[in-house]
Automatic annotation (TrEMBL):
Coiled coil: none annotated. The keyword Cell inner membrane does not apply. GO terms for biological process: L-valine catabolic process. Residues 504-629 form the 3-hydroxyisobutyrate dehydrogenase-like NAD-binding domain. This is 3-hydroxyisobutyrate dehydrogenase. Pathway: Amino-acid degradation; L-valine degradation. It comes from Phaeobacter gallaeciensis. Its EC number is 1.1.1.31. GO terms for molecular function: (3S)-3-hydroxyacyl-CoA dehydrogenase (NAD+) activity; 3-hydroxyisobutyrate dehydrogenase activity; NAD binding; NADP binding. It catalyses: 3-hydroxy-2-methylpropanoate + NAD(+) = 2-methyl-3-oxopropanoate + NADH + H(+); a (3S)-3-hydroxyacyl-CoA + NAD(+) = a 3-oxoacyl-CoA + NADH + H(+). Residues 350-501 form the 6-phosphogluconate dehydrogenase NADP-binding domain. InterPro entries: 3-OH-isobutyrate_DH-rel_CS, 6-PGluconate_DH-like_C_sf, 6PGD_dom2, 6PGDH_NADP-bd, ClpP/crotonase-like_dom_sf, ECH_dom, HIBADH, HIBADH-like_NADP-bd. Pfam families: ECH_2, NAD_binding_11, NAD_binding_2.
Length: 638
């Protein structure tokens, strides 16, 4: 193939990109040739390491060859692009997980698809001309080919900054951000490659390493961490807008060139991935959710038209000049069901699901859409797409690899566990996603261990919308083995899973989280009611608080004031996203736990009392927990 040279030289498998006239842009055929070579060399004892390099001085690889993607996409053929991305991402994962050393030499531009082949190996070498970037938001995509993994691992908030500004990294900055490991002047590369070929020993890289000249990113990190710490793209934009500094204004200018939906999704993806359960496969699967939809529902085709085809540099972006709705981000990143990116060795599981109400039903449906065999039971007569309904919990649990429960309280969990544990196969995992008391979770864990089973308590955050959209957060307690078995299912049902510790730790985390949530919502509602009586405009208050020390999730993401901030239940007559009676339940669990642990929680106790008054004696039953605001509006100081 004229675009790529694949051979074995000495002890090294050599892959050289040979399209310098096209900045070594990656075509589908080149991608598949790399994949084939890597698979052949994996089992070849004559090959000790892999060397990836490229001809020309301008670029190692400036990205994917998007001409054919644009041509097929504008013709309404989205399958070509989806196939390209699917197979490329599988190759990226294979390279990242490769059992032999993979050494890449990254001169000039390394961007997009070039990051996918050049920045996932074991040894990534840069030189004085290296310029690494992920500019996808400028063409209506998101950082992909596993780039979100690197961005999520970058120090501080460099990931968000680099992901949405498309900032170019010189050698020192590339090493700082995690895209490269070693600086070696390009004049030494030829001799080093000869040594690697002859010896098959990557230790020679360290003997050639030098310190690069310091890059600008280190000095800018204080500003980056300050402005890019927000939960959403809108938070970042608000923070920058309120700063007259040269850094803030220059950064705003860079952001304003890019696709708003792409940037909003990039920030969300990095936040979902950041944490101990991050893996290359998780990053690629999330990226594929976006790229699968990029032509049909995103800005990709318009971005290519404006930047590459017509070159008018005036793309007509979705949501230009406005905030990107949370629902738009969720739609681009929701699970793909049967179309989800999978990897060869993954197999479908048999799952029993008990408790198929407003939360459990859509969670089970998402598992079925992803190709798992889901058998369900609920006391009510329900029908869930893709789920086979049976007449008892024990029948749902029989022969299952995993049993998931979503139940009202701890006593019901204990009763259901007593019913299903004898029916479960040895080694299966029981995953309880209910919000219950810590003692019940620990009691069920003891029962499962005695039966030779695994247990994870994994209460969720995200509400009914999160259950339907596959964007829940799981707070998990249990052994490492149990969490490892449950984690692939969390990836389907949610956006993030945090292993909090041993059994009961998930419930403890949920209780503490929701105690904070309940207290801060009350404070936020009180502040809006006070602002009204002081004659302060609600929008002005939001603009100040959302970008200053009063910042909170209840203000910035779930504002209780209608028509202010991102859309929330307040804009729908306080129809519940998270019902006030469920908040009361969680606050009571927090105080039960505080009493058991002898913990002083006066604010939590007061929040419980206020929600009890609101739900049981006022009009809070059936309302969202943010409906505290109209309650305070009507009240004077007692």
């Amino acid at each position: 193939m004229s675009d790529i040279d694949i051979r074995v030289t000495g002890r090294a498998g050599r892959i050289t990109l040979t399209r310098p006239h096209a900045l070594n842009a990656m075509s589908y055929d080149m991608c598949m040739a790399i994949d084939t070579a890597l698979r052949n060399w994996r089992e070849d004892d004559a090959v000790d390491l892999i060397i990836l390099d490229a001809e020309g001085d301008k670029a190692f690889c400036a990205g994917g060859d998007i001409a054919e993607l644009y041509e097929t996409g504008t013709a309404g053929n989205f399958d070509f692009g989806r196939t390209f991305w699917r197979d490329e991402y599988r190759m990226n994962a294979f390279l990242f997980e490769y059992p032999k050393p993979v050494i890449s030499f990254l001169q000039g531009f390394t961007m997009g698809g070039g990051v996918g082949i050049g920045c996932h190996g074991s040894h990534r070498v840069v030189c004085e001309s290296s310029k690494i970037a992920m500019p996808e938001c400028g063409i209506g995509l998101v950082p992909d080919v596993g780039g979100t993994l690197i961005l999520a691992l970058a120090p501080g908030r460099l990931g968000e900054y680099l992901g949405i500004t498309a900032g170019r990294l010189g050698p020192d900055d590339a090493i700082l951000a995690g895209f490269a490991d070693t600086y070696i002047p390009q004049a030494q590369w030829a001799d080093l490659i000869e040594l690697l070929e002859a010896s098959g020993d990557p230790a020679h890289i360290a003997t050639h390493a030098q310190d690069p000249e310091p890059g600008p990113l280190r000095a800018a990190q204080i500003d980056i961490d300050r402005h890019f710490a927000g939960e959403t793209l809108g938070d970042i934009q608000n923070s920058l807008t309120g700063d007259e500094s040269e850094f803030a204004q220059k950064t705003l200018k860079a952001i304003n060139r890019n696709s708003p939906i792409s940037m909003a999704c990039t920030v969300e993806m990095i936040h979902r991935l950041r944490g101990p359960s991050l893996s290359i496969r998780k990053a690629l699967e999330l990226e594929y959710r976006f790229t699968y939809r990029a032509m049909e529902h995103g800005d990709f085709l318009e971005g290519i038209r404006a930047q590459i085809i017509d070159k008018d540099r005036t793309p007509k972006w979705q949501f230009a000049g406005t905030s990107v709705p949370t629902v738009a981000v969720s739609k681009m990143l929701q699970p793909l069901g049967a179309d989800a990116l999978t990897f060869e060795e993954e197999k479908a599981m048999k799952i029993g699901f008990i408790g198929l109400g407003n939360m459990g039903g859509p969670m089970a449906a998402n598992l079925a859409k992803a190709g798992h065999d889901v058998v369900g039971f609920d006391m009510a007569e329900v029908n869930i797409d893709g789920v086979t309904m049976v007449s008892s919990g024990a029948e749902a649990a029989a022969g299952a690899d995993a049993v998931i429960t979503m139940l009202p309280n701890g006593s019901i969990l204990r009763a259901v566990a007593a019913d299903v544990i004898p029916a479960m196969s040895k080694g299966a995992v029981l995953i309880d996603c209910s919000t219950v008391d810590v003692d019940s979770a620990r009691a069920v864990d003891a029962d499962t261990q005695a039966a030779g089973l695994l247990f994870v308590d994994a209460p969720v955050s995200g509400g009914i919308g999160g259950a339907a959209g596959g964007t829940l957060t799981f707070m998990a307690g249990g052994s490492a083995e149990a969490f490892g078995k449950a984690d692939p299912l969390f990836d389907i049902m949610g956006q993030k899973a945090v292993h909090c510790g041993d059994a009961g730790a998930g419930q403890a985390a949920k209780i503490c989280n929701n105690m904070i949530l309940g207290v801060t919502m009350i404070a936020t509602c009180e502040a809006f009611a006070l602002a009204d009586k002081l004659g302060l405009d609600r929008q002005k208050m939001f603009d100040v608080v959302s970008t200053s020390s009063g910042y909170s999730w209840t203000m910035n993401a779930y504002c209780p004031a209608p028509g202010v901030g991102p859309q929330s239940p307040a804009d729908n007559d306080y129809q519940p996203g998270f019902a006030a009676d469920l908040m009361l339940k969680d606050l009571r669990l927090s105080q039960q736990a505080a009493e058991s642990a002898d913990a002083d929680t006066p604010m939590g106790a007061l929040a419980q009392a206020l929600y009890a008054q609101f739900v049981e004696n006022e009009d809070g039953l059936g309302m969202d927990f943010s409906a505290m605001l109209p309650r305070f509006e009507k009240r004077g100081r007692e």
